[in-house]
């Protein structure tokens, strides 16, 4: 896919110990439990019965381990059906930011109820062309056209595929 | 007749189900109206659907599905002024021209040339020209020749980004385009020789939008237009078109007013009715209607919110269009939820 790694020595952080939820969390669309920050973070980083991390396209480590996505990345208001995810690309000129952003959007689109409005952005100050990137990631028509491109869909699916740990 | 004084509501007449993916655009056939109005819709399911209202039962059904032509999303559709032809703009890079043969539609031509997704298509008032625009940043003008022939007359470059919509002026051969580059461009051929140039760009310095402009719509007389944007505003523009009609040259468009504070998600569509009601469809699933307040003000005209229909759809609204019929105030809407809805604006009983 990419011939040379752009970020050869990423800083890898320890995985956060998973908080044990006292109530049984579920992804059931008909559940009356409001969706909260932790649940969306979990959606992004693992599913109920599988360890399914969104892989950083360049490295086998998960985006959580690289601090690209943390719990604080997620702002959610279930009552308003609104979520905003802020991610931090690992390198300033990270050319994979578009793929990461698109993958996060696709994962949320597939996991959240259709009533949800999803905004994706890069953390302020974390990317050279931040405004341009944010605009592209949030243009619904551009996203739709991109997802009709089989090459891009393949890259996104690879990003979303389960890691074999 | 002051609409603000009437107690109006937008009633859902019918929900048209059938598309298997989001619906991007709706277009009313300009000549058919009562008793059998016709509506076209196009979708991410790669098809165009033609809907007709039965004169007997008053209910809407899907008359035909235009399929197996486009290989990707059909983003917008537009009827020729005669009502006999329908153009379909697709992400597959082509624009289809369909002829209504009565019980079915036939694709009589496919316009190729854009380098990537075609976003919009528009016929001029006389039906002699078509315009298309694309993510390839260009606007193309096509000449309608006889015998199902279409010739590329002009390739217009100028926008620096993805062009979202093209719209011919309702009475003059002046072409308007709006873009991801936040501007609206006006294209005109001074000598009427088909050599179109960009004669005006409405950008932030002209009080224009600060983000992607998604749509343009003209009032019936063509001396005003409304534009909508990702910057959450609607803007009203005006021009002295009598100057143009009398051959005095190009009359520039100027900003008249900005409607801000009414929308909190991207406004994808806006349409100006023949009786001066402006409709907007936005990413918050709501339809809003605005009218001229008609109050004399030193600052010029202002527009008031006539009504807001929340949760008009279950997802983003991509298109709103008033019916050309003079008899009733019908509005069609299209959404990411895969539905087309027909609405009637009427006084509360």
TrEMBL record, chain A:
It holds the Pfam family FeS_assembly_P. One of its GO terms (biological process) is protein maturation. Residues 51-114 form the MIP18 family-like domain. InterPro entries: FSCA_dom_sf, MIP18, MIP18-like. It comes from the Eukaryota. Keywords: Chromosome partition. Belongs to the MIP18 family. This is MIP18 family-like domain-containing protein. It comes from Brassica carinata.
Automatic annotation (TrEMBL), chain B:
GO terms for biological process: iron-sulfur cluster assembly. GO terms for cellular component: cytosolic [4Fe-4S] assembly targeting complex. It comes from the Eukaryota. WD repeats lie at residues 16-52, 67-99, 111-144, 156-187, 206-237, 310-349. The keyword Magnesium does not apply. The keyword Protein transport does not apply. Keywords: Repeat, WD repeat. Gene3D superfamilies: YVTN repeat-like/Quinoprotein amine dehydrogenase. Essential component of the cytosolic iron-sulfur (Fe/S) protein assembly machinery. Required for the maturation of extramitochondrial Fe/S proteins. PANTHER family: CYTOSOLIC IRON-SULFUR PROTEIN ASSEMBLY PROTEIN CIAO1-RELATED, WD40 PROTEIN CIAO1. Belongs to the WD repeat CIA1 family. This is Probable cytosolic iron-sulfur protein assembly protein CIAO1 homolog.
């Amino acid at each position: 896919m990419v011939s040379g790694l752009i970020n050869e020595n990423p800083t890898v952080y320890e995985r956060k110990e998973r908080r044990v939820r006292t109530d049984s969390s579920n992804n059931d669309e008909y559940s009356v439990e409001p969706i909260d920050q932790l649940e969306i973070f979990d959606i992004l980083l693992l599913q109920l019965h599988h360890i399914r991390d969104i892989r950083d396209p360049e490295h086998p480590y998960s985006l959580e381990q690289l601090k690209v996505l943390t719990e604080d990345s997620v702002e959610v208001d279930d009552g308003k059906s609104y979520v905003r995810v802020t991610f931090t690309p690992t390198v300033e000129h990270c050319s994979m930011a578009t793929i990461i952003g698109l993958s996060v959007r696709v994962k949320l689109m597939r996991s959240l109820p259709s009533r949800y409005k999803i905004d994706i952005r890069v953390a302020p100050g974390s990317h050279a062309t931040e405004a341009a990137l944010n605009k592209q990631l949030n243009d619904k028509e551009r996203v739709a056209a991109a997802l009709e491109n089989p090459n891009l869909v393949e890259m996104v699916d690879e990003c979303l595929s389960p890691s074999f740990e | 007749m002051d609409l603000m004084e009437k107690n109006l509501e937008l009633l859902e007449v019918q929900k048209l189900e059938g598309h298997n993916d989001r619906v991007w655009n709706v277009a009313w056939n300009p000549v058919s109206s009562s008793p059998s109005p016709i509506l076209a819709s196009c979708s991410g399911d790669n098809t165009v659907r033609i809907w007709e209202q039965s004169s007997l039962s008053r209910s809407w059904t899907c008359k035909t599905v235009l399929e197996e032509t486009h290989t990707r999303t059909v983003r917008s559709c537009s009827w020729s002024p005669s009502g006999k032809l329908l153009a379909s703009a697709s992400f597959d890079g082509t624009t289809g021209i369909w002829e209504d043969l009565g019980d079915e539609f036939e694709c009589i031509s496919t316009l190729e040339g854009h380098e990537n997704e075609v976003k919009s298509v528009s016929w001029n008032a006389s039906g002699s020209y078509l315009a298309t625009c694309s993510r390839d940043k260009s606007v193309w003008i096509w000449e309608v020749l006889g015998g199902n022939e279409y010739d590329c007359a002009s390739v217009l470059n100028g926008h620096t980004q993805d062009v979202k919509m093209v719209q011919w002026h309702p009475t003059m051969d002046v072409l308007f385009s709006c873009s991801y580059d936040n501007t609206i461009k006006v294209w005109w051929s001074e000598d009427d020789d088909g050599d179109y140039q960009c004669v005006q760009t409405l950008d932030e310095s002209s009080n224009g939008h600060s983000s992607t402009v998604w749509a343009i719509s003209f009032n019936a007389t063509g001396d005003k237009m409304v534009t909508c944007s990702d910057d959450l505003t609607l803007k009203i523009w005006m021009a002295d078109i009598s100057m143009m009609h009398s051959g005095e040259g190009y009359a520039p468009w100027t900003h008249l007013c900005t409607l801000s504070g009414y929308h909190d998600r991207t406004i994808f569509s806006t349409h100006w009715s023949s009786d001066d009601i402006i409709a907007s469809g936005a990413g918050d699933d709501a339809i809003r209607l605005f009218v001229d307040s008609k109050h004399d003000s030193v600052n010029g005209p202002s527009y008031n919110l006539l009504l807001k229909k929340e949760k008009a759809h279950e997802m983003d609204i991509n298109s709103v269009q008033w019916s050309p019929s003079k008899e009733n105030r019908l509005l069609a809407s299209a959404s990411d939820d895969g539905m087309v809805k027909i609405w009637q604006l009427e006084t509360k009983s």
